[in-house]
Amino acid sequence: MKPAATSRQRIDPAKLAAAQAAAAEVPVFDVDNPSTASGDWDNAIVSQSLAELREQIALRRTRGPGKRPAKTAIQLRLPPQALALWKASGAGWQTRMAELLTARAPKAQ
């Protein structure tokens, strides 16, 4: 008969004592897995269900009062040469392109 799912293996007390005696007295610091400070958990979300977690995350993603309006995503087809020139101009090329488009936009009638 298979052991029940709740059964657990018993640890030999002699083996446990030997392992504890061989363990280092000083805690080991793992560079890839550092300890956390209490401040690391200040913005943690605690929830009892997935629906509640989704609701709390959605509340965090909303923009508060006084925020600048969000940008609108569009698809714009440009000649490859024009896009290459903009990208070659360095970091921030999308911002510079948006500023130029705004400056050269037709005036409202």
What does this structure look like?
This protein has four helices and no strands. It is mostly helical and 109 residues long. The protein is elongated and about 90 Å long. 39% of the residues lie in helices and 0% in strands. The protein has a domain at 77-103. The longest helix is centred in the middle third of the chain and has 12 residues, at 50-61.
* SSE order, one letter for each helix or strand: HHHH
Using DSSP, what is the number of strands?
A: 0
Number of helical regions: 4
* Major beta sheet summary: none
Termini distance?
86 Å
Structural class comes to mainly alpha
How much helicity do the residues have? Answer: 25-40%
Shape: elongated
* Radius of gyration, taken over Cα atoms and rounded to an integer in Å: 29 Å
Fold blueprint:
Blueprint: H1 13-22, H2 50-61, H3 80-88, H4 93-103
Structure described in brief:
The protein is built from 4 helices and no strands. With 109 residues, the protein is mostly helical.
Features:
single chain; 109 residues; mainly alpha
